[in-house]
Amino acid sequence: MNLKGRILSNNKLNRSSSEIYIPPQPGIIDQINDCGGDLDRIAELISVDPAVSAAIIKVVNSPALGRTEKVGSIPHAVVMLGIGRITSILKTLLLKESLNGLESKLDMKMFWKSSVSVASVASTICRQLNLAMPDEAYTLGLFHNCGIPVLAARYDNYQQVMEFSYSREDGRISSEEFSNFGVHHAAAGYRIARVWNLPEVICKAVKNHHSVDRVLDDQSIENPTLKTMLCVLKMAEHMVNLPEKLAQSDRDFEWEKVGAKVLDFSGLSEYDFEDLEDAVKYQLGSEF
Fold first, then answer.
1. Is 175 exposed, middle or buried (0-12, 13-18, 19+ CB in 10 A)?
2. What is the pTM of this model?
3. Do residues 132 and 208 share a domain?
4. Where does residue 102 fall: left (phi above 0), alpha (psi -120 to 50 degrees), or beta otherwise?
């Protein structure tokens, strides 16, 4: 594509993205930020909502986060995990609540089940490979497809287009969505991640999670964290067979396109990857 073509495409993407509803970040996040380091006040703010509190405790004690010490209360969770991690968990729970309020034909129960599976597997992969980002990988796993419910609420035929996207043998999922709507779920998800003030590396990973081969080939990206997070995400998606869960596709064409590069960057052979998958399944048990 020439420069003029890229400019026109970017203008189309920006215009279409601006027409998509982006759920605002709830006020409680700002209230927590205003607390500074007052852990007692933060715990008090979270504890006001019993349902959210219970959900946080459930996530914190999940095998996916690998905690050996069980957490029994919000104050304990805040002290044990710290403000940053608790806030990230809170954001994922509140985003789920916001997106569930959108009207669409999307099977939200299956969507969130698949997102939790990817998040759990991604976090576990990090621990198995001794990567110091299990919590960040969990957040990315939950957030990376958050643009899907937003587009499904905007376009009545989104589910059909998404299913066709995942059935493309070239693995170019975003291209199919863009050609139909002028926007794709990775771009919509990036806007949500930015509005919700997720860490910059997670925002970029959301934006590029269907452009992994391009990112891995880009020598100008000197910080390896983004590339590592994307590789972990792609491995997790493949392990849980995400294309089948989201789009009834019996083949993971995207993995067939990028899998070799992902494993090469991660220093894994095919046999290593099989061993890793077995270890993840053993660690997560029924959560896999």
1. middle
2. 0.86
3. yes
4. beta
109: left (phi over 0), alpha (psi -120 to 50) or beta: alpha
Cα Rg of the chain, angstroms: 19
Residue 72 has φ and ψ, to the nearest 5°, of: -110, -5
The tokens describing 108, both together, are 């939200």
**What digits encode the pLDDT tens for the residues 162-181?**
999 999 999 899 999 999 99
- Structure token pair of residue 222: 């000197």
| Length of the chain (residues) | 288
Could you give the C-alpha distances from 78 to 38, 169, 211, in angstroms and in order?
10, 46, 35
How does pLDDT run across 68-78, given as a tens digit for each residue? 778 889 999 88
Torsion of CA 120, 126, 128, 131, to 10 degrees: -160
Would you say residue 248 lies in a domain?
yes
Question: What distances in angstroms separate CA 17 from CA 192, 209, 234, one per listed residue?
Answer: 11, 17, 25
Extract the tokens encoding 210.
């269907």
Q: Residue 44 class from Cβ within 10 Å (0-12 exposed, 13-18 middle, 19+ buried)? A: middle
Q: Which residues of 9-19 are buried (b: 16+ CB within 10 A; e: fewer)?
A: eeeebeebbee
Domain that holds residue 73: 21-101
Which of 101, 117, 152 is where one domain is finished?
A: 101
